[in-house]
Amino acid sequence: GRGRLARTWVTPPDSAVAMSMLLAPTQPMERWGWLSLLAGLAVAEALAELAPKNVDVMLKWPNDVLVDGGKVCGILSERVEGTDGARAVVGLGINLTLQKEQLPVPTANSLLLAGFETSATDVVSGVLRHFERYYRQWERTGTLRDEYRAACGSIGAELTIAVHGTDPIPGVGHDVDHDGRLEVRTSRGVEAFAVGDVVHARLA
Fold this sequence. Notes:
Layout: E1 16-23, H1 34-50, E2 57-60, E3 64-67, E4 70-82, E5 85-95, H2 120-141, H3 145-151, E6 158-163, E7 169-176, E8 182-186, E9 189-193, E10 198-203
Antiparallel strand pairs: 1-5, 2-3, 3-4, 4-5, 6-7, 6-10, 7-8, 8-9
Helix pairs in contact: 1-2
């Protein structure tokens, strides 16, 4: 799979869901940044429905889905140009049955390790169901601010923002604005950060 900043990822056969959705949004291009956040929201809700009791599913800005603190999902949204105009491709990967020694980084997790008893079909079905609902709402309104801010664990949390070419900035997640940017209260006041500008948004 392909990730941000030209990163790649590989999983063993049958151990993950890897899927892409081709979309033709009618919202203006400046609103398309919401697609990444929308996808994270859909995955988080789908996994929360499938999670065993006492397993924590959290959405971290912009679209990382954590299960018991470990990342199980990565998402990348891209604009593609075709003969009939611009389209959006939303790709995602969800760790299903990876064992601990197969995880790409120590901060990752898989549904199997977290105690989920579910199939790839259940996961894909849940993600698509929630994605369609939020996508249709976003097409009508151009934003999912209220729904996203209610689900985002980065709001109210201590975190560090790393932006291209600058030193990491510590602060506290303050809000998400109408365009999906994360507002962070820093020593300089409340600052807004866009998905495309941020390299990492790490929780403390």
